[in-house]
């Protein structure tokens, strides 16, 4: 009887540990998924419940962050994203942080060489550059617009790269 009680207790404890592990795994997967849930990703169809169409029909504005503009093609896939800081301009590193969120990749490479680990923070002399996403194995091209004080007023990003990217 004692052995049966011990075995039952071990089975219950093992089941509890498995349930806790599965719940933790599920929660972390949902957190990873939720981090990008509010953005519409380049190359994917626009999620109309998350955006508001503009009267001129040229782009959509994000419902959560109206500074984000999504441009789509005829099949309603996002082809480019523009982020408007105006009138509150930001330093170049803010664009890098926003870009990581918009592309849903925390490990972007801001360089022409996707193997390089050199981090790059744009300055007013770096108005255009390539970005590599290890997560999606895609190249993106970004263009920054600066105000007169070396702060970013807006930036745009779309799929592709310049010819000098490896």
Strand order of the largest sheet: 1-2-3-4-7-6-5
Distance between the termini: 69 Å
| Count of strand segments | 7
Low-confidence stretches: 1-35
Characteristic terms for this protein:
globular; disordered N terminus; 166 residues
What do these coordinates show?
The protein is globular. A hairpin with a 5-residue loop joins strand 3 and strand 4. The protein has helices at 2-37, 92-102, and strands at residues 51-53, 60-62, 68-72, 78-84, 128-133, 138-146, 152-159. It has two helices and seven strands. The protein has a seven-stranded antiparallel β-sheet with strand order 1-2-3-4-7-6-5, with helices on one face. The protein has 166 residues and is of the alpha+beta class.
Topology (elements, then pairings):
Blueprint (H helix, E strand, L loop, with lengths): L1 H36 L13 E3 L6 E3 L5 E5 L5 E7 L7 H11 L25 E6 L4 E9 L5 E8 L7
Antiparallel strand pairs: 1-2, 2-3, 3-4, 4-7, 5-6, 6-7
Provide a quick synopsis of the model:
With 166 residues, the protein is of the alpha+beta class.
